[in-house]
Amino acid sequence: MSTVTPGIHHVTCIAGDPQRNMDFWVEALGLRLVKRSINQDDPGTYHFFFADAEGSPGTSMTFFPWADLPQGTVGSGQVSRTAFRVPEGSLDFWESRFDEYGVEYDERVERFGETVLPFRDPDGLPVELVEVEIPDDDPTVPWTEWVPAEHAIRGFHSVTLWLADPQPTMELLETMGMERQGTEQAQGDTPGDERTRFAASGPVGKYVDVLPTIEASRQGHGTVHHVAFQTPTDEDQEAMREAVQGEGLRPTAQIDRHWFRSVYFREHGGVLFELATSGPGYDSDEPLDELGERLVLPGQFEARREEIEAQLPDVTIPRPNAAEADD
């Protein structure tokens, strides 16, 4: 059993219009819709999963499109930015693509020796692309339907946490097996003076940055709902759950989320953390080449398919050949 996380498993966010959300993350950013499902705690709402070609752990950005919620405010007690890896030399391509698609982006910044391109999705969610060297044995598989492999997003790089009192959270990250990498002056639109980086043990989604802020937050469109960390096996997850309990936190019992098993808790600063197993995976109920093509209703929800489908708005997955036909 291990209390060392390999890194981020997935990040779940709040969106507004579901079609706009899908168009942006599939077409503009080139991620694959690997699962089209529902919020299992609110089955009248979609749950979209955008990832690499195989839905590998450490690559899936997921969304609850709650159209009726107000615009959120990023602040203390939240994941303030989610960063993805892209191959070295890709940022010129991405700036040109953002210009083509009307994406709001900022000037590049240097952070811990890496070049970062900050931008926002249509709901105002703060996102970043970070140029890194992608090794030949990297576990991610680029999805190339919209973006060529040499520029494609290759899973998570990091999340940034904004916290009123970072110290207890930094100690928790060390309990979770992350190592402190260093501290540097914050750049860009971050409100704190110093950014402290922690590194997990795996190759994807390995970094967590911590920044102090007392800015008020409000959950809504354009904010992160929770961040999930990999605990590959049930035994790893239980060991981590016990370690978290030892820090005075109150993790839930294990919850079956169909494609992984989960434990949830709020860390000391108020950010919702999840621990997620690696399996059974997004291809456990659909063939790999058909991921995301149909609405998947886990477990007991299948018996309510007609009722649930009647509540959900129609959505269409963007297809390159359809876009060409429109030209």
Automatic annotation (TrEMBL):
Keyword Metal-binding: no
InterPro entries the record matches: Extradiol_RC_dioxygenase, Glyas_Bleomycin-R_OHBP_Dase, Glyas_Fos-R_dOase_dom, VOC_core
Recorded superkingdom: Archaea
Residue numbers spanned by region Disordered: 308-327
One function term, GO molecular function aspect: dioxygenase activity
Gene3D superfamilies the record matches: 2,3-Dihydroxybiphenyl 1,2-Dioxygenase, domain 1
Presence of keyword Ribonucleoprotein: no
Domain VOC: 7-132, 155-278
Pfam hit, one: Glyoxalase
Keywords, comma-separated and alphabetical: Dioxygenase, Oxidoreductase
Name under which the protein is recorded: Ring-cleaving dioxygenase
Species this chain originates from: Salinirubellus salinus
Organism placement in taxonomy: Archaea, Methanobacteriati, Methanobacteriota, Stenosarchaea group, Halobacteria
